[in-house]
Amino acid sequence: MNIPENLLKLKILDRSESSFHVSLTLLNSSSFEPVDAFLTAPPPELLAAFKNWHDTYCGLPIVRQWRLTPKSVSASGSCDQYKDEVKHFLNEWLNDSNVQWLRFREKLIYLSGQLRHSHQEASILLDAGENQLNHFPLQEWQFLREHFPNSEIGLRVKSEGEKEIQPPPLTQKIRVLILIGTTEGLNTSKDLEIVQRLETQGAEVKVLVTPTSEELFKIFREDEGYDIFVFSGHSRSEEDKLGWIYINDNPEGCIQIDDFRNNFKCLIDKGLQLAIFNSCDGLGLAHQLAKLNLPRCIVMREPIPDPVAIRFIEEFFRNFTQNYPLFRSVNSAKISLEEFDQARKYPGAMWLPTLCVRQSALLQPFTWQSLKQSKSRTQTTSFIKDKKYLIAGILGCALIATAWGIMQASKPVAVTEETCPKTLAIASQHGSNKSRCFGDVRNVPEGTIWHGASTTWAPIRKDVNSQIKEIFPEFNLTYKSHPTLAPGSQTGIQMLLKGQLVFAESSRSLKEDELQEARRRGFQLRDIAVAIDAIAFVVHPDLDIPGLSMNQLRKIYLGEVKNWQEVGGPDLEIIPYSRPESGGTTGFFKDNILDNQNFGGNIVEVPTTTQAIRKVSENPGGIYYASAPELVPQCTIKPVPILQSNGEFIAPYKDPLISPEDCPEKRNQLNIEVFQNNQYRITRKIFVIVKLDGSVDERAGEAYAELLLTDEGQDLIQEAGFIPLR
């Protein structure tokens, strides 16, 4: 069974003493407009009930024997009583009646109806950072149970730096490594039996029982790699950070994650896709392993009784091998634990298993079948293992061709000049009941509308705003630059905060400090996505390299790689160019490629993309990045293909590459298809930033975004070189 699965992302953007700023996005849909709301902070009653449940649960005799460092219990009630109190106060809190939160829930209801109508399901990724929301059993919210009954809530964990997730190992079968650690008080033989059943599903299972650290590390370093790692035994964490596992009964059998990170990293670098710690108290392990670049793991929040652990892993693999998606497999396994709750043996047992995922791991499907397919591809591509990169096989070409055909066949007919009126007088008689054309948008205010300042938006300002003015001449869109600061998203948002713009244009979403500054000034900000943009990298046309990986780009701009010879090119110094950090593209690059690290000392800053293009065209070792519509059609530079996790290079331009000699008669065209289907990884949305203060400025910003999101606006956005959201 292959069930379509959508992923809702709930991100906590920032927090004040009294509330959370929550943003809802649909990760695998470019047409879904993000929804923002403010949720009041958790009430003291919920915090107290959760602490009491936690303390009494850990103090249960059947649980205490698995906790290696028992904690004192101060609560006087029963664990089951506190579990019910947690559910009660959690629902009271999340059913808050403030207007914004009501609208948020209404959007979720609408979305659930749309998914049911199309026979799809949705799961939820909670991106709360170091927030107490990670601990609350949000699946007990009755609203979610009613509208998203099969949805699992996973936690987003982050790696150190933007590291590429490795593809599964090049092996003939799905390989599973199970480590049986110290077994005191545990029936690990049952876990072993469950995992060994995977051999009937075509997997190869390797078993390690209470090994020494030397034996374990040798397997990590020398074996050909594993797809799934299962640990059954004792583990523990402290304050969600430090993790230990106990691999044997000897004193040296207690291993801290930091002690063997380099060895375990070898396993991850060889393509480990999922780690399961079916043991006690493992949330700290999830944080540590994500830093090692592990894509996905399943851990237990608290000490877990043996019968619960056995039932979970048995039901998880039963569902996963039937090709249920990962989130659905975890959810079904957790539902099977409900009988332990109902019998009041282990109150809150369903809350314990926790799926932790890196967001970049969600770009590709992860099922038992997808793992098997990766093995079948191994057989057809083994003869080119020693190549620098893998060439797509016949099957891949066929799939891409089929997908392209479907996309072309299903592409909506563009709104033409004949279907959209060019004056407001005619538009008022147009009679459309949807915002297909500019003239269908109502309540567009009049006056001078000051806006700016993202340079990525230049093509839209040039090609789209002029068309809007033909319909709404009194909606006088006027670009305004800062007298001293360089143009860019950050500059525009700061001008908006200070009342110098009506709305701002940005090539990145809002940051927490900007949201906090708005609240300090007595209003709120909203970012409205209107299009998708890709980031392209360009080099001198004579530079001979097949492409670059994300990690190579990261090292180049951190100053760790300084010669093209280090990345497969000639013996030539690398000169990396970048715009100032006030630019949204620069900010996006630092956040998503450099993981908020500072640029290397060899970076050459240029104020504009025009100047950067000239620099790269004059310097054989130069490299630069910017919005793809700005770079790909240029004649004097060469766009660079980007290496994907499957070993394939994906170019931001359509093949074949146009040489400088044939340009400008012919120009490179944007590879829109790979941007839309996420084959090309470096894409981001661009936003209209609106000030929510109830003024005419708010109406103007929202009207402008609505105009761009009409069919006519989206067609013009595509003509300007961007990917439409709709």
Structural class by helix and strand composition:
alpha/beta
Strand content: 15-25%
Shape: globular
Number of helices: 26
Q: What Rg do the Cα atoms give? A: 27 Å
Low-pLDDT windows of residues: 66-73, 380-417
- Largest sheet: spatial strand order: 3-2-1-4-5-14-13-12-8-6-7
Euclidean distance between termini CA atoms? 30 Å
Key structural traits:
11-stranded mixed sheet, 726 residues, 26 strands, 26 helices, alpha/beta
Please provide a written account of the structure:
With 726 residues, the chain is α/β, with parallel strands linked by helices. The protein has 26 helices and 26 strands. The strands form four sheets. An eleven-stranded mixed sheet has the order 3-2-1-4-5-14-13-12-8-6-7, with helices on both faces. Strands 15, 16, 17, 18, 19, 20, 21, 22, 25 and 26 form a ten-stranded mixed sheet that branches. α1 packs antiparallel against α3. It is globular, with a radius of gyration of 27 Å. The two termini are 30 Å apart. About 6% of the residues have low confidence.
What's the quick description here?
With 726 residues, the chain is of the alpha/beta class. Mean pLDDT is 82; it is low at 66-73 and 380-417.
Produce the secondary structure layout.
Layout: E1 5-15, E2 19-26, E3 35-40, H1 44-58, H2 61-64, H3 79-94, H4 99-117, E4 121-127, H5 142-147, E5 153-156, E6 175-180, H6 188-196, E7 204-209, H7 213-222, E8 228-232, E9 234-238, E10 242-246, E11 254-256, H8 257-269, E12 274-277, H9 283-291, E13 296-300, H10 306-320, H11 326-335, H12 338-342, E14 353-357, H13 368-381, H14 394-410, H15 424-427, E15 447-453, H16 458-463, H17 465-471, E16 475-479, H18 489-497, E17 503-506, H19 512-520, E18 524-539, H20 550-558, E19 575-578, H21 584-592, E20 604-605, H22 609-618, E21 622-627, H23 628-631, E22 638-639, E23 642-643, E24 649-650, H24 672-676, E25 683-692, H25 696-708, H26 711-719, E26 723-724
Parallel strand pairs: 1-4, 4-5, 5-14, 6-7, 6-8, 8-12, 12-13, 15-16, 15-17, 19-20, 19-21
Antiparallel strand pairs: 1-2, 2-3, 9-10, 10-11, 13-14, 17-25, 18-21, 18-22, 18-25, 18-26, 23-24
Helix pairs in contact: 1-3, 6-10, 7-8, 10-11
